Amino acid sequence: MKNEAISERQATILIILFIIGTSFLNGSGIQAKQDAWIAIIIAISWSVILLLMFCRILSLYPGKDLFDILQIIMGKWIGKIISVLMILFVFHDGALILRSMSEFTNILIFNDTPPMVSMFFFIILIIWSSKAGIEVLGKWSEFFIWIVFIIFLTIFVLCISQMNISRLKPILNNGVTPLLKGAFSSFSYPFGETVVFTMVFSNISKVKSYKKIFIVGLLIGGGLIFSATLGDILVLGSNTISRVYFPTPMVTTLINLGDFLQRLELTVVIQFLVCVFVKVSICTLAVCNGISKVFGFNDYKFIATPVALLMLAFSLFVYKSTMEMSSWTVYIWPYYSFSFEVIIPLVIFILAEIQNKNSKITKAIK
Predict the structure, then answer these.
(1) Strand ranges, E, within 34-136
(2) Membrane-spanning regions, if any (predicted)?
(3) Residue 124: which domain range?
(4) CA nearest 109: which of 326, 269, 252?
(5) What distance in Å separates the CA atoms of residue 77 and residue 248, rounded to the nearest whole number?
(6) Which pLDDT score is estimated for 119?
(7) Of 238, 199, 226, 197, residue with least CA distance to 214
(8) What pTM does this model have?
């Protein structure tokens, strides 16, 4: 991503919006039921370790992204093979997010509209964003974040009167196993997905600390998901949450201040679309950047349109129904994504540390 630069602040905001993504509506750690809020805390603590590993990899190779680093430490051909695997993973992730957006908007707003219609107009924005580049997306994110914060804070405050602390009890009544399953699910989705930023964060202007960017983004984004999940449990209860696909919009339907304030679920739609727009844009940028690195293209922007349209086409048949989408996210995604979010980055980290140590020894000998 030559000639494109974003500030540390913009990079942090992108991570926050990316993490919120679809998790804000789908809920997180729901296997743990009323202990989902504890599961999210555990997942965030695990994710700190994972993101510190991402930071170390990027700091060892300044100005390089994951695709560059793979070819440096694994050689041209093996590096490209692993790059292709990572590209396919991010492409798949982007398609899943698109489909989630379609299911949500069709259930809540466009009940009688074919899913293709809303997805097509959305993908046009994604194509524009990808062609504009991460620098423009970073600037827009500084505006988007205020929309997200204002909507979130407004809804949370208005829901306080509906909250009941007894819905958190009994704590750990279901045992440790569901809690750990919920934590693992939250760890992989959405926190582990931040591996995609190692594929696009090659040009951050005057970067002082990758740790600050990733960890602050994780803590704020994770904190918002924690607050949303906790609020959902306090208002609806874990039994209700386990029976609905999108608990947060359901919470907002309970807010009704006479004729003055109604239908606040529409504000949730705005917040959701903003976060999903950023998330799918980042995935598309990562895929385009990866393809350009594998095939040696000088620019990635000219392939943004075909990549985005293919992602749209794939998203149409990736799930058969909303039920299958929800089941995949909770029960299959954590195990499917583990290799791409943890194992491959861990191997890269180990090889990068070995190469760095060997280069220091060589310099010392000379």
Answers:
(1) none
(2) 12-30, 36-57, 77-97, 117-134, 143-163, 183-201, 213-236, 268-288, 300-319, 331-352
(3) 8-365
(4) 269
(5) 46
(6) 85
(7) 197
(8) 0.94
**pLDDT tens-digit map of 32-91:** 888 999 999 999 999 999 999 999 999 999 889 999 999 999 999 999 999 999 999 999
The DSSP call for residue 309 is H
pLDDT in tens, 233-292: 999 888 888 777 778 778 877 776 655 555 667 788 888 889 999 999 999 999 999 999
Whose CA is closest to 257, among 167, 162, 147? 162
Is 3 inside a domain boundary? no
Q: How far apart are CA 128 and CA 268, in angstroms?
A: 24
Q: From CA 105, how far away is CA 269, in angstroms rounded?
A: 8
Q: Helix axis angle, 66-74 relative to 76-108, nearest 10°?
A: 150
90 vs 284: CA distance, rounded Å: 8
* Per-residue confidence (pLDDT) for residue 262, from 0 to 100: 55
Q: Which CATH number do you get for residue 176?
A: 1.20.1740.10
In a domain, 211, yes or no: yes
Indicate whether 199 belongs to any domain: yes
- C-alpha–C-alpha distance, residues 28 and 306, integer Å: 32
What would the two tokens of residue 272 be?
């959701």
Cα angle 265, 271, 272; round to 5: 90
Residues 227, 24: Cα–Cα separation, whole Å? 10
Q: Is 132's pLDDT higher than 80?
A: yes
Burial state string for 36-74 with b = 16 or more CB within 10 A and e = fewer than 16: bbbbbebbbebbbebbbbbbebbebbeebbbbbbbbbbb
Let me know if residue 160 belongs to a domain: yes
Residue 357 tokens, joined:
């140590």
